[in-house]
Structures are given as C-alpha cells and as structure tokens.
Design goal:
6-stranded mixed beta sheet
C-alpha cells in the first residue's frame, strides 16, 4: 500500500510539473544557454553594434570590475568585422535567457525616438508652451543613504514650512497657479509637445535663428508614470488595438477641452536640461549617447545597465527585428523582466516605428564570463 501511495504521489507530481505548476521559475535572468540557441545570431551585422559597446566602456569599467578586461580588449579593436565582433562576444560573454512569470519567454517590446520641435528661448504669442528645467526647490532623497538595500531608489519632494510634501503633480505644474514659473529653459509652439517629449525622454528644438538645441532628461517629479493610452481606452475614446502615438495625438487635438483631463491622468512630469551637443544621440540612464536601433531601455532592477541583450521581435509591419542591443536607458513605463523599449533615433522613420511599436518579443542577456 505504501509503495502504491508513493507511486501515485510521484505520478501526480510529474503530471503537475508537465502543466508548469511545479518548479516555477523566478522571473528575470535565467540559466545559461548555448550560443546556437540564439535565433539569427549568425545573421546580425554585429559590426553595427560595436559603436554602442565603445561608447559605454568608460562607464562600465567604473561600474563593474567584470568589465575591465572586456573594455581593455575593446580599446584595442578598431573597425571590427561582424565575424570578429561575434567571436569577441562569444569569448567574453555567456548568454542567459530572460523570462517572466512561470517561465514565460514573451514580453512587450515598444519603441521611442527623439522628436523635433519648433521653439524660442523667450516666450512669444506663438511660442507660449514651456519646457521646464529641474526646479530649484525639488528635494531628492537618496534612500540608500538610510537603507543600503534600497540602492538606486529615491524620493522627490518639496518643503512646506517644516514638512516634506510630494512634489507638484502634472495637474499642479500645468495648472493655473504655475508653481514653476521662472524655471523655463525653452518655449515651444505645440501645446502637447512638452508632454510627448517627456515620454520620449529627450528632444531637439529648432530655433528661429536656424540653430537647433537639444533637451535631455534631467529629473522627474517622483510621481508614478501612467499611460494616457490606457486612460483613453478606459473612457471608451479609443479601442485598445488602435492605441498608438498618432491616435493619441489626434484625439488630443480633436478634443482640446478634454485634453487636460487625459494628460493629467499621468501625474509624472519630466524636467530637462540643455544638451551640450546635438551631434550625438541623447544620453540615456547609463549617461552615454544612445545608438539608433542598438540601444534599449530596460528595467534596471532585472537587467543591469550596460548589459548586451539579444532582442528577438518584429517591427510593426511584421518584418523580423533580431539583433544585438545594449541596455543603456530606463523609463517609467519599462517595468518587468521581458520588457524593452527600442531607441529608433531621429526623423520620420524613427517616429513612425516608435509610434506604432507594440510587439511581442524575447530577450537574451549576455553576461560577462567573469561575473559571478
């Protein structure tokens, strides 16, 4: 009887395991896989990704001892072929599949880009909408100073007498009281231009004298990011399958009276600083220039910044998009293990791709061999 009971128990465990309920994996970077398990690994022109590797090495050697031998070798290689980059990566890195809950491999892959705006350094009747610098009165509290385990986490607030209050929300900043008056760094002619530039994290502004200045991420007000597309779906304004950058913009322009309600549903507000140069891409959270179609934003709690990531997905037209990327940025909406935001660069093509990109995809993280 005992033997029969044990057999029944064993069979039940096998059955449950086959359904995926036993030995549930923790979401995140999983075990090492072999290089031949990476689809299209032999087809990507890896030489195109080399500039992204070169750009981040000065930062990575300061962040991690595991990157020191890697970046020393990078510095000795100029203009490598795709085959040489492939051999380099296989020598210094090991591939690990990234998975979500219950071992799920697929996740959401979106895109972002650098918009071009028209503006002025001074306010005029035409250029009446501000882009704000980081406010002088905003407090940034590094939680790691109190609790080391909370490294990288911070709070933002403001003083009201001897009390620390949450910093102003979007509704308050853009409301009638204008608490940030005097903090403007540029004025633009598009009432929604600042909002969408905040979502993208950077932008370029064409001035009336023909010059162009860049604006880059400086800080954020500490409020959580809320997708306004989700709000439009909730109120029945747009069906979920039609939500994109372009349909959201059109709805706002067609419904100016309700636009503040929708925009204020996202209390998060991004502040900017003028960039030193527009000749290079905007800088991401790793503080290196982003490389078009080779840089991605990730959840840094799952994938360390600087990690090479093999991305397997499609573009909005259904064509394959399988290539080596580098985790060089983060974003308020980019949370979870199998989640990435592709930086598509600047221009009409970049805007079109970023505006429509909401594909399913898989990710494989390449970790330094010397990292334990």
């Amino acid at each position: 009887m005992v033997a029969i009971y044990r057999l029944a128990l064993l069979l039940s465990l096998v059955t449950i395991a086959s359904c995926g309920y036993v030995f549930e994996r923790e979401p995140g970077i999983g075990k090492q896989i072999s290089w031949n398990k990476i689809p299209a690994w032999q087809r990507d022109n890896l030489a195109q990704a080399w500039p992204a590797m070169q750009a981040q090495c000065p930062r990575m050697t300061r962040k991690s001892a595991a990157w020191e031998p890697i970046c020393e070798a990078v510095a000795s290689i100029e203009n490598p072929t795709s085959a040489e980059v492939r051999a380099f990566l296989e020598q210094y890195f090991k591939p690990h599949r990234v998975h979500g809950k219950n071992g799920k491999r697929d996740g959401l892959i979106t895109g972002y880009y650098e918009p071009i705006l028209d503006g002025s350094r001074t306010r005029t009747d035409k250029f009446a909408y501000p882009i704000y610098a980081q406010p002088d009165d905003m407090l940034v509290i590094e939680l790691a100073d109190i609790y080391p385990k909370l490294k990288g986490m911070r709070l933002r607030g403001r003083l009201d007498g001897n009390r620390v209050l949450p910093y102003w929300s979007r509704a308050e900043i853009d409301g009638g009281d204008q608490p940030l008056a005097g903090q403007e760094i540029i004025w633009i002619d598009d009432p929604y231009g600042s909002f969408f530039t905040q979502i993208q994290g950077s932008g370029r502004v064409r001035l009336q004298d023909g010059s162009t200045v860049g604006v880059g991420y400086a800080n954020q007000n500490g409020h959580p990011y809320v997708a306004v597309g989700k709000k439009l779906v909730e109120i029945g304004a747009l069906p979920l399958e039609e939500v994109s950058l372009f349909t959201i913009k059109k709805w706002l322009r067609d419904n100016p009276d309700r636009a503040p309600e929708i925009l204020n549903a996202n209390p998060s507000y991004v502040f900017f600083e003028l960039r030193d140069s527009v000749d290079e891409g905007p800088r991401g959270s790793l503080n290196v220039p982003l490389t078009s179609e080779r840089s991605i934003a990730v959840d840094r709690r799952v994938i360390p910044l600087g990690t090479p990531v093999w991305l397997q997905t499609t573009l909005p037209d259904g064509s394959s998009f399988e290539r080596l990327m580098f985790a060089q940025d983060t974003g308020g909406a980019i949370t979870g293990p199998v989640r990435a935001d592709v930086f598509f660069g600047i221009g009409d093509r970049a805007e079109q791709l970023a505006g429509e990109m909401k594909q399913r995809g898989q990710m494989i993280a390449l970790l330094p061999k010397t990292e334990k």
